[in-house]
Amino acid sequence: MSQFWKPGTEKPRLLDDEEGGLLFFSSLPSSSSSGFGYLSIERLRQRLPVYKYRTAILYLVENHATTIVVGETGSGKTTQIPQYLKEAGWADGGRVIACTQPRRLAVQAVASRVAEEMGVKLGEEVGYTIRFEDVTKNGVTMIKFLTDGVLLREMMDDPLLTKYSVIMVDEAHERSISTDILMGLLRKIQRRRPGLRLIISSATIEAKSMASFFNSSKKRRETEGEVQGPRMEPAILSVEGRGFNVQIHYAEEPVSNYVQAAVSTVLSIHDQEPTGDILVFLTGQDDIDAVVQMLNEEVQNRGRNSSGLIILPLYSGLPRADQELVFTPTPRGKRKVVISTNVAETSLTLEGIVYVIDSGFSKQRFYNPISDIENLVVAPISKASARQRAGRAGRIRPGKCYRLYTEEYFVNEMATEGIPEIQRSNLVSCIIQLKALGIDNILGFNWPASPSPEAMVRALEVLYSLGVLDDDAKLTSPAGFQVAEIPLDPMISKMILSSSQLGCSEEIITIAAVLSIQKYNVALDTVNKYSAILQSIWVSGRGAQKELDEAKLRFAAAEGDHVTFLNVYKGFFQSGKSSQWCHKNFVNYHAMKKVVEIREQLRRIAQRIGIALKSCEGDMLAVRKAITAGFFANACHLEAHSHSGKYKTIRSSQEVYIHPSSVLFRAPKCTLAPLLTVVTFGVNPKWVIYHSLVSTDRQYMRNVISIDPSWLTEVAPHFYQHQHPASMLH
Ligand SMILES: Nc1ncnc2c1ncn2[C@@H]1O[C@H](COP(=O)(O)OP(=O)(O)OP(=O)(O)O)[C@@H](O)[C@H]1O
């Protein structure tokens, strides 16, 4: 490894614990609690750097409304602070201590760890809530871990979050869109509930700017004449020290192909380094699958030499059971290799990890309010992320981190912090949520980082055109409130709402469930060429594109993709939800199981908000009209005499094309026996509506359905201003 790798020049840090950890770990830990050899959990807790600050933390929380805790990764913030608070009585009298995380996986993992440390059953004193899953008990749960998105939803029922005594916003440096909105709202709640304590915790957050953000509420309280309660001026506490030392190694030369470099680094570690599991950070399912495949091939070619490798992918779309494999103990004599997206970047402790390989990239959301395109793009990570990644080693023994980039790049070119997600996202969902919480003055809202005015105006326009906001930019009643209640993109929610009147809610809810599991990624592949990758109900087309295309044709509906989804769903249902059926038809079994699950959730929500559940029994006209009612703003017209399939959007005359993954790409004359009505046609439909745009070499429409233009003025007269859409083309 020495020819390729250069040790970092950053001065190695001292182990926080003078005794070091190796004494206790002459061999790798093998199971969750037994991994700590003969140390009791209590002793382990006391060895964490944060323990020395226990009294200080409790003092500051008692006396300040907001405490900002900055501590290195692995210092014990997430697992220990909620326990200290509980021990100090903050959960007495039925009150609850909340700790938010940006990611679901972290919520579950940290909650089980804390339950284990406290010796209680998960779901009782310690519980967690993520979207569609609540593992808490009313009146029993004292410490609750939850995603920041879930806490925002809870505010709809309880705007002052009255059951919580302390809310700890963890991993605030990640600046996820929900974390930022949450901080803005918590700051408001504090003014009404001085008893509420906030802890903002992170490894790298710029504590001073955060402190001044929370400090401005002090002035307001003074002007309001309120003088009692804790000090409004935030306290900042810096927790020194971290777990164990992690040696950083940099690539000697810039790496041109990080996928290939990750594979060879795993193999070199396996050949040359002592036991210990490996965690590789890549960007998404596509490159993770590629590395898994390359490593498996290598293992086969090498025969016995590499047979000790257990190769496991990890990403958010992976089924739960497969995700949990990464937490299982590594059998003696084996080495686990976890190949992950940045879901493993923060808060997770994977016990056996000794080596981390960091590609230097992650998938990040970028939204352009002018073109209205939001893509997941492979982009360089920040120094803050790189440190978090390295911190996944060294949590229970010393470790090593191999960065697939040079030290010079790290020092001189890598950004210190990432751009907050709120400044690179479509704000439609975020604004409707704020409106539902009674924040009418969106422009005047105290954002920790202001989103762009263009993105805000664009989001307000969309919500207004959907009939969700009125002329005073307030939520309409009941439509606006109903749309806000459905935890999906407002355009999908509006489509569901309209299906109620059109008598096709069962079908539309199926379509909504399929749309909500899809993710569009734009990947910078290994030769620096952009390509679009779709995570969908179809299995990945890698190596079998022709067979996948043929399979799609079996379900293809000439109306378009949404009706095709209904055909697939019906086929899946008729097969008894069989995995063999999925395999035979190139349908992604796990995605379909998720669709069934989400569909059930959506049906329950629909019933709660008064949407009649009804099937249109094959009347696809009703289905297409309901889709139009949600997505009318995405209408496009085929250019006259266009043989190249060029469309123009009605709204902004952008040139767009049907994406090759759409069943309308080849304008299918439907073959084989369809499961639902399929109209035969062989030319591109004149009018279409798309679900989203993706930008690669051209602007492509994904999930396309043909429509009748007269529906546009029918469902959205305000948007089309009583003109016939065709007249708006020029
Ligand atoms: N599931 C686990 N198994 C074993 N040890 C664990 C586990 N979870 C946490 N620990 C131990 O507790 C330490 C502190 O973890 P914790 O998540 O509280 O740190 P943190 O300061 O919040 O770090 P980060 O910001 O990286 O999440 C870990 O370094 C590890 O030694």
TrEMBL record:
**Gene Ontology molecular function, alphabetical:** ATP binding; ATP hydrolysis activity; RNA binding; RNA helicase activity
Write out the entry's keywords from A to Z. ATP-binding, Helicase, Hydrolase, Nucleotide-binding
Query: Which principal EC class is assigned to this enzyme?
Result: hydrolase
* Residue span, Helicase C-terminal domain: 262-438
Q: Which reaction does it catalyse?
A: ATP + H2O = ADP + phosphate + H(+)
Give the matching PROSITE patterns: DEAH_ATP_HELICASE, HELICASE_ATP_BIND_1, HELICASE_CTER
* CDD domains (alphabetical): DEXHc_DHX35, SF2_C_RHA
**Residue ranges of the Helicase ATP-binding domain?**
58-223
Q: What is its EC number?
A: 3.6.4.13
**Pfam families named among the record's database cross-references:** AAA_22, HA2_C, Helicase_C, OB_NTP_bind, WHD_HA2
* Superkingdom assignment: Eukaryota
Which InterPro entries does the entry link to?
Answer: AAA_22, DEAD-box_helicase_OB_fold, DNA/RNA_helicase_DEAH_CS, HA2_WH, Helicase-assoc_dom, Helicase_ATP-bd, Helicase_C-like, P-loop_NTPase
Q: What is the designated name of this protein?
A: RNA helicase
Species, as recorded: Ficus carica (Common fig)
